[in-house]
Amino acid sequence: MDNLEEAIMPDHVFSFLPGSLHRIAAGLPREILETLQEIRIRESRPLEIVYDHDHAFVDAGGKISDNPAAAYRPSHQECLQLLDLLTDHSLYTFEEELKRGFITVRGGHRVGLCGRVVLDKGEIKQIKDVTGFNIRLAREMIGAGRSVLPYLIDFEAQTVRHTLLISPPLWGKTTVIRDLARMISTGEWPHQLAWKGKKVGIIDERSELAACVKGVPTFHVGPRTDVMDHCPKAEGMMMMIRSMSPDVLVVDEIGRPEDAAAIREALRAGIKVLATAHGAGLEDIRSRPMLRELIEEGIFERYVVLPGRKGTGRPLQVFDGSGFLQVKTPFDSHVKKV
Amino acid sequence: MLKLMGAALVLFAGAMAGFYQSWRLASRPRQIRGLIHALQVLETEIVYALTPLPEALRKLGRKTAAPVSGLFGQIGDRLEQEQGITLQEVWEFTALDYWKQTAMKETEREIVRQLGRTLGISDREDQVKHLHLAIRELQREEMTAIDEQKRYEKMWKSLGILAGVLIVIMMY
């Protein structure tokens, strides 16, 4: 279904790794580098990678195996260096993120952190002694949204429908919604009609969608796209609605009550919303209070459950606003490996 | 005639050596003050502007007076250009290298080195504490430096000339 896809090699990710880890990561076999999803670094414990929905331990020479005993064990010093490099030598600029347990680094890669949590009056203040890192590689895949967009078109209104993209973590929600934003903004419609691109507003709370560096997107998000970087979703949506007059709002991972209020506000302003949510399927989503409310109100016109990768046998499913299955494609990979 | 020229040269050299020593004594408090000022600017950048360190240090390089400006400018530039290198490494190396170009002493360098080990690796509150500590210690050094300047500045000047005179006398 999609033919043109670009998998970008995660070379620049490795610039965040201190010397020894850098060499190990760069020494990984090429086919693994291409499908690399996570690098998991735990102090004094085996170095692990997740690739193509499989996992393995890595030894000092960059060879992978299932045997943790042979794996490389990052030292305390390396973990300190890694934190220094990940935070651009400035941990204090990541205080808010540290409270939430992850930071987003240049290139849109999200790094989950574990360690000792410091509390202040019962609230999480920060993570000290960070000893666990999960570097999740953000990949830009031009064309990842091509298989989804045809189901979202509203021909009458000449725009897209309110849509919720659903999939478990690591299945490419962010990749797909980013590409949808790019296509809608560029005017890359799946039909031959002469529609122009729409004004797209991205609220990028975790800097994953556009991977902004100093406010300028580094991923392709389209020429008519405005990005509110690092901004809480609900507030960001309201700000966009008030000031940037978007046709389509794009938000990643909604789930809090205030997000629902902002989505309703967007609706009233006639703005289309593309959002994503964690979940195994529509039923799963229904069990979450805030999302169930939105579903019951019939706010979304399309629910798209993203397919799994090759071999998982999960099809792409599209439901309409009332939850009826519209499409179930037999193909089992929306993001093909290159 | 030749002897006379030699004597003049010796006298001149002695005077210059004396003047250089007294210049160093006079420069030290000024440079420490410059350093304190720079750290205060850095504090503002960290606490209020939340500027990442590489950028903040480069800004310091432009905003402050030499020789302190060069130190921070160099560290900032290296952090921005070289990948995979930690702040602590760059800081240590550059401070070590750069100190020869200043009139400041080992004690000040040690304070700056210590600061380098804590910079950028903790939250704002903690950063401020370390910066304040460094500033306080530098202020103390400034006092000693001023004291030494008062006591020895004139002495070095006359000592230089007098040593020159002594050698000339011994030559004759």
Automatic annotation (TrEMBL), chain A:
Keywords of this entry: ATP-binding, Nucleotide-binding
A Pfam family it matches: Spore_III_AA
Family matches, as Gene3D superfamilies: P-loop containing nucleotide triphosphate hydrolases
UniProt-listed InterPro entries: P-loop_NTPase, Spore_III_AA, Spore_III_AA_AAA+_ATPase
SUPFAM superfamilies referenced in this protein's UniProt entry, alphabetically: P-loop containing nucleoside triphosphate hydrolases
UniProt domain Stage III sporulation protein AA AAA+ ATPase: residue ranges: 17-323
Keyword set includes ATP-binding: yes
NCBIfam families linked to this entry: spore_III_AA
This protein's name: Stage III sporulation protein AA
Organism annotation: Ferviditalea candida
TrEMBL record, chain B:
Entries under InterPro entries matching the protein: Spore_III_AB (IPR014198)
Chain segments annotated as coiled-coil in the UniProt record: 121-155
Domain of life per record: Bacteria
Keyword Coiled coil: yes
Keywords: Coiled coil
Protein name as it appears in the record: Stage III sporulation protein SpoIIIAB
Taxonomic source organism: Ferviditalea candida
